[in-house]
Amino acid sequence: MRNIYKIIFILLSFGLQAQLQTAHWYFGQNAGLDFSSGSPVAVTDGQINTVEGSTTYSDNDGNLIFYTDGQTVYNRNHSIMVGGTGLMGHESSTQSAIIIPKPDSPDIYYIFTIWNSNGLRYNVVDMSQDGGNGAVIEKNTFLMSLTGMGGSEKLTAATIAGCSGYWVLTHFIGSFYAFSVTSAGVSLQPVISTIGIQSYFPIQGAGHIKLSPNGKKLAVAHRDFYNNVGGLGLYDFDNSSGTVSNEQLIYTPNQANKRRYYGVEFSPDNNVLYATCEADNTSGTKNLLEQYDLTNISIVNSRYIIDSWDGVVSGALQLGLNNKIYHVRWSEYLAVINNPNEVYNNGTGAHPDYVINGVYLAGRSSTHGLPPFITSLFYAGIMINGINNLGEYCKQELNFTYCHNGGEIDSILWDFGDGTTSSLENPVHTYEPGTYTLKLQLTIGGIPYTTEEIITIHPLPVAFDAELEECLDFSGNAEFDLTES
Fold it and tell me: Which residues, if any, are the signal sequence (predicted)?
């Protein structure tokens, strides 16, 4: 019998902050935040005034590059970028746009836009143009239609396994579409996964789609419309192939207790899902902020209502580089979930710590939306033998590297937990059997980051010699009983 032993990775700490590409947010009615210091500071120089969608991107040092509401692009100086008008997103599209850097081309960025009648499209920005302020050099390249009986306002993105590029995902009617972005450009042929809720009328296309930071889970919020099905779905995502599978409907609408979902977000440790919705019941309509424990054997029954309030805005949720989740409620404040990894437990006192007036926006107002980002920017994973998920290994020579979306590495230190270290980017190491704490320390742009994982190494299986009995028949042929081995 051949034994297979597992090498088990358990993420201990998320001290490794998101890279600073997520440092600047512009959203709502000229509202903005600067996270480059590690904590959000309100800024009032933003030019967009949007009901829902917007997106931003910063460089590896946290300096703003550009931002957009999906229709107009503004450069780092808050002026309209050359060629930056006429994009085919929409201010009332849930996730109107998302920005993706082109791998191996530091000056080139793609702006994906989505809006029901305009479809899914992409635009190309060249930051070497206009003295470094950038220009839109290709505009509104068509990817797919979203018309007919359906619609979609959903966009999310994550790193392809092995860090070779990015997946950009949307949902339309009853299928997920994953477009790859690599050094070769944007693939015009998506990976299509036909699974999940059938959403038809454009209003059902509203609501967020979000990949988890590690790119393994996918959450989708659908608004229902009269008697048409909406709901809240959780899926597995294969970031190697781009396929979506294993649907779990956390909520399926019913007429007695209808919930119209809008915002979704994962905790930094990928184990908790947050969602916002408008809920109808006997007392009228309430907005709800919900928490679900994804490690619970019954995710549906783990539901905890963090807050409920009157009004018409359930609002977007967005993870920040400080590992807190922010929530819009159409006010001069953002609410904040300070401890999103904490699952509510009345017995132990564990609580996500939700603060309604968490961040003052300096007189500006939030609306429905917050800027989406490549979710992998909130995750930096250690990779062993080319993978960053659970694998099966016997004791062997292991190749270590890391997956991140940052820039130049100032320094790197691997501590293998067995008394040995390495300053190589891609070291090779062999462990003796046992359990070790593997630590990676990176310094990027003068900012230190640390992540740790526990590694368990099992011994190689031992092969025993077997004695076989030889039986000769009268013809001189020999037979061996292999069951003895």
Answer: 1-18
Cα 280 to Cα 449: distance, rounded to the nearest angstrom? 45
Determine what percent of the chain is predicted with pLDDT higher than 70.
79
* Portions of the chain given CATH number 2.130.10: 18-378
The answer, yes or no, to whether residue 178 has pLDDT greater than 70, is yes
Task: Say how many C-beta atoms besides its own lie within 10 A of residue 255's C-beta.
Answer: 9
| Encoded tokens for 26 | 């512009």
Residues 270-307: pLDDT tens digits?
999 999 998 876 566 789 999 999 999 999 999 999 99
Report which of 179, 181, 183 is spatially closest to residue 169, judged by C-alpha positions: 179
Helix (H) / strand (E) element for 375: namely: none
pLDDT averaged over every residue in the chain: 84
CA 374/CA 159 separation, integer angstroms = 8
> What is the CATH code of the structural domain delimited by 1-16+382-485?
2.60.40.10
Please determine, for residue 66, whether its predicted confidence score (pLDDT) is greater than 60.
yes
Q: Give the amino acid at 125.
A: V
Asked if residue 399 lies in contact with residue 385, where contact means CB atoms within 8 angstroms, the answer is yes
Tokens of 439: 């630590």
The single-letter DSSP state of residue 127 is: T
Token pair listed for 459? 């011994």
Number of Cβ within 10 Å of residue 142's Cβ equals 12
Secondary structure (DSSP) of 317-332: EEE-TTS-EEEE-SSS
- The answer to whether 160 and 377 have CB atoms below 8 angstroms apart is no
**257's tokens:** 């207790």
Sorted by sequence, the CB contacts under 8 Å of residue 370 that are 6+ apart come out as 25, 27, 54, 316, 317, 318, 326, 328
- Of 2.60.120, 2.40.30, 2.60.40, 2.130.10, the CATH number of 18-378 is 2.130.10
Q: How far is CA 385 from CA 308, 396, 428, 460, in A?
A: 46, 11, 10, 17
Q: Is 130 exposed, middle or buried (0-12, 13-18, 19+ CB in 10 A)?
A: middle
pLDDT of residue 31: 98
Strand pairing report for 317-319 and 304-309: unpaired
Q: What is the pTM of this model?
A: 0.81
